[in-house]
Amino acid sequence: MSKKVVTTTLKIEGMTCAACSARVEKALQKIDGVISASVNLTTEKASVEYDPAQVDEAALAQAIEKTGYLVAQDNARAELAVEGMTCAACSNRVERALNSAPGVRSAVVNLTTGRASVEYNPAVTDLDSLLAAIDKAGYLGRLAQEEDSEDEDDAKLRLAARRMWTAWAFTIPAAIWMLIAMTRGGHQHGWPSTLSYNLGMVLLALPVLFWAGGHVYRSAWRALRHGGANMDTLISLGTLGALTTGAMVFFLPVENYVGVAGMIMSFHLTGRYIETKARGRASQAMRKLLELGAKTAIVLVDGKEREVPIQQVRVGDIMLVRPGEKIPTDGVVVAGESAVDESMATGESLPVTRRQGDEVIGSTVNQQGMLQVRATKIGKDTFLSQVVKLVEEAQGTKVPIQEFADKVTGFFVHAVLVIAALTFIAWLLFPEAMRAVGAPLAQWLPWYNPELTGMTLALYATIAVLVIACPCALGLATPTALMVGSGMGAENGILIRNGAAIQTMSNVDVIVFDKTGTITQGKPEVTDVIAVEGDEAELLRLAASVEVGSEHPLGKAIVARARQKRISLAHPQNFQAITGKGVSAEIDGHLALVGSRRLLEDHGLDPHGMDEEIARLEAEGKTAMLVGFEGKVIGIVAVADTLKEDSVPAIEALKALGLETAMITGDNRRTAEAIAAKVGISRVLAEVLPEGKVDEVKRLQQQGLTVAMVGDGINDAPALTQADVGVAIGTGTDIAIEAADITLVSGSLSAVVSAVKLSRATFRKIRQNLFWAFIYNSIAIPLAILGLLHPVIAEISMAMSSVTVVGNANLLRRAKIKAAS
């Protein structure tokens, strides 16, 4: 058998000459499994043919990076709608087909939404190739459209309802007829005659099976044609097996189960209807988000008002927003002042005041005054669009705990087919032994008939095995809970990037908070100006003159105080920011220093005379900055940042949840411990330079702790990445949504509590669903093998298992995730 060969193209960064390209090419050719490798210096690309059974793209990239060059992650992402999937075996098959396609980095298929999230290398493959891979697996794929989702859900629900009611229109008369026949001496004798009864059952069952349930057989045939099997395969074999008894009853001593075939299909279609309805509820949050967007905007053109569709608004347009109206798109207030309800974005119920110069979020509601807003973001760049995209991506990911369920689902249907065949053979060859095994339980089951023939029991048990096995419950366990959880999060200002973040956040041991802007407001103010020689105005002038060139919040606070006092500032020369120590500049021809003790000592100044004042200020939680000028220490400027209103109750709530809290800051230990004591944080990581935050997080992880890091999402990006879960916290449209696993829109610490509660509630539902699905299958299948479950009872329990899993996920909506709850 010839081995499979895959060709891929990798873009390489850092090559400058022919020696570079030759070095990379040689490294690739040495890898086991690489058939050929060619590196083009001009295009900066490597074309590699390899055997995927021996090596993958990750190994190729690793080999290139070992030579000292980088592989550019030139990935594209596609959301594809997949039609024809009916159970977990289907989604598993599509996922395998996509992941084995050349150029696909990762593919995740969500049965609940009917979508595939695919990350691929556009240099190797394209959308047509991805859709072809889906088609080859036996399903129909197309590019997903955001606006399709609600219409699709409604259409699917109407179709499922029509099929269900059509099936029951024929099944109910059949069931009544069966009941009458049983009361008249047993349906094996029929009523009014055996012949009319047997023919009548066939005539009533055929429309149920091939009209209402025809799509089930088409799905099973499509799977079989492409070498697979799914839930519809099991239902098809079970119902067709029961249907054959309608013919066999005329020639062999078997029960007529044609009516049972109709009932099995009717219950199956009922389960599908309830499941479709429940899936729609699971995706409600996404629909709500899409509905929040404004449909029109009033734009000022040459001083005149003009109402236009939201699609026609352009960046720079001035929009007029009256009280009670939605702000059409993200922008900046250029005139007016009003209270704005931002609950749709932040989850906070209280409105916030917005005035000239403030940013506003599109789709939030203007409550009181008239606002004029200049549009800054439109279309897919708006905050709401980013949120919708993030939620979609989260719903297209998987939770690590799901991996085992996926492995089971991959061979589940095939295993059931084998078990069903063995069950049929066992009942034909060893009927008495099989009866003896089930005898202790049989006396408690009203539907069990010990007088049935061996052939009848063989059919009875085989049909029950086929229709009771439920891979759907396993496949729906995680995605439904993940959909509801991520949607609820978005409604409450908690944006979750992926399923793994939910599982990790639910198991976190310690939450590390960056101090500035997280625990505190991030708006420090000058509290004390202490001059050695008594001239406080001159001390403030020199300090502020140095800090004019600084971007640090503490420096800005000093400049703001000087300008507030109308102090004229000098123009600094040779400004320099020394990371973790402070700043220096030449003022009036002399070197001026503003910063820590270490900064002054590095320049030969002795700050020990100020130790007592520094100790007092730091004990009060203030940051004391020494000021040096003309070779001597001339004073201290102290700055303090006020705590956020909810910092103390939020830390208390996290402790009540059993979590340890820590604070990381560049402040000296005395100041840091004073602030930590105010909010109730026990572990303090002080005097940490920006680059040292990663090491502190690593240190905690080395102690065996699962660490969540909460920061502003920009300055703390490396630490957020290093942590097991990175949580970005901020306000407005400028939040770095891409920077963390979880983004909290409101900027309040109570949102951290809500994120922990939501993650725990979601992961608890996922665990419950998986547990229920495994327990159900491990009990139901053995009972069916022993002939202890009537096929109709088996189908009812199978349908209900899927519905239970989806319903349990929807119960998440009742979870109390607010910090105050």
The coarse overall form would be elongated
Distance from N terminus to C terminus (CA atoms, Å) equals 64 Å
Q: What percent of the residues sit in helical stretches (DSSP H or I)?
A: 40-55%
Which strands sit side by side, in order, in the main sheet?
A: 18-30-29-28-19-26-27
Strand content: 15-25%
Overall SS class? alpha+beta
Q: Report on the biggest sheet.
A: 7 strands, mixed
Annotation, overall tally of beta strands: 30
Q: What is the averaged pLDDT score?
A: 83
- Please mark out the parts with pLDDT under 50 across 5 or more consecutive residues, or reply none: 732-736
Estimated radius of gyration: 34 Å
How large is the count of helical segments?
28
Any overview of this molecule?
There is one protein chain. The two termini are 64 Å apart. β2 (34-40) and β3 (45-50) form a beta hairpin. Residues 732-736 have low confidence and may be disordered. This protein has 28 helices and 30 strands. It is α+β, with helices and mostly antiparallel strands and 821 residues long. The radius of gyration is 34 Å and the shape is elongated. The chain has a seven-stranded mixed sheet, sandwiched between helices. 49% of the residues are buried.
